Amino acid sequence: MRRPKVLLGLLLSGAIFAVPACQSTESGSEVGEKAVAPPSVTASIDPQVSIKEAVLTAYYSMWQDFRHAASTSDWNDPAITDHAIGDAEKVLRHGLYVAYQKEQVVKGEPELRPRITALMPEGSPTEATISDCVDDTKFLIHGKDGRRLEGGDPGGRHRTTAGLVLRKGAWYVTSFVFREVGTC
Question: Which residues lie closer than 8 Å to 134 by C-beta, 6 or more apart?
Answer without folding.
Answer: 110, 111, 112, 113, 157, 158, 160, 178
